[in-house]
Structure formats: structure tokens, C-alpha cells
């Protein structure tokens, strides 16, 4: 997603700048390794301004997850994968779109809420719950198209649209972990190719072997 430059007049108020700094730095370094001082420096605000907007670093973490959910929801709502008239086509277009935005440096395409949830799920339940709301909320946006595809194709399955929607997020988060572990974005794109094949198999839809 495009971001305003550091000195752009469109960067927003202090709170927004702190949230943007959290988005970028935590994706690069992780939550624990990101300090309040570092966030203030990146956002060009004082520590007093930080604590004016957030009573603690944990409160910032919760707000950052909510900010991520809000901004990514708008981004995905405007994405081109909604265009196909066939619901299964929209589901497959979603996977293709997610693959297409795996580009640039690893922190640029990996998930803030996935990164934080992995790190703090047992130590900061408020952050974990905010991350869960983002991940599961995004998964839920796929359910209607999956349900429609199941009806259109007469799919008699023991799985549900909700469970497949959640599985797409499982593959994405795992793909990001592989990209980090191997320091190679192609590992993430490979996982999305497998997800495409898997969904086609579920719906008995011919595959397209167009990638190398």
C-alpha cells in the first residue's frame, strides 16, 4: 500500500504518525524490539506526545492493530479481485491478488497483526485480541463468495465457507513466516500458488499452470 513520505504534509497528526511508525517498525523488528523512543523518533513527536495519545506501549499495540484493520480493509475493498462475475472467480482472483502484492522488501508485504500475534499471544492478550479481530474479520470478507461458489457448483462438503476463509489466512501467515525464515519472497509466492491449486481441487476446477 502506498505510504506518504516522511516529510509529506499529508502525514497526518501525531497519533497517526505514531501508528504509521508502529506499522513499519514492528513489521521490521518485531513488537518487543521496538521501543517507545524509536517510535517517537520515527514519527517526529515527543515522548510526551506519545503518552498523550497512548497510556502505554501495549495500548499503542492495540491501536496499531486496529489501525491496520481499518487501513487494510479500505485497501482490499478497492482491490480488483471483486470484479469477476463468477464467485469462484472472485475467490481465485483474491488469491492471485494476494500473490501479486508480495513484492519489495519482506517488511513491506508481511502482516503487522500476524507478526504481533505470533510474538505476544500469551503475554499481551489485549493486543492478541485486536490482532485476532483483524485476521478473522478479513477472513470473513471471503465467506460470501465461497458460499456462493459452493452453491453454484453443488459442492457437498464437510467443510464450511468460514473454515476455508480462515485457511486462506493460515496459508498467508505461514507464507510470510517462510519468506522471513528463508529471506526470500518467492517462498511466499510459492505457497499462494499451492493455495490456488488447493481451492481449484476443492471445486473441481481445472488448474492454470501459467507460473514458473
Would you identify the regions where 5 or more consecutive residues have pLDDT less than 50?
Answer: 1-10
CATH C-level name of one domain: Mainly Alpha
Count of discrete alpha- or pi-helical segments spanning 4 or more residues: 11
Based on secondary structure, the structural category is mainly alpha
Q: From the 3D coordinates, which CATH architecture of one domain would you assign?
A: Orthogonal Bundle
From N to C, what is the helix and strand string?
HHHHHHHHHHH
CATH superfamily of one domain: Tetracycline Repressor, domain 2
Outline the biggest β-sheet.
none
C-alpha termini separation: 26 Å
Shape: elongated
- Name the beta content range: under 5%
What is the count of β-strands?
Answer: 0
Rg calculated over all Cα atoms: 19 Å
Fraction of helical residues: 55-70%
Q: If you average the pLDDT, what whole number results?
A: 93
CATH topology of one domain: Tetracycline Repressor, domain 2
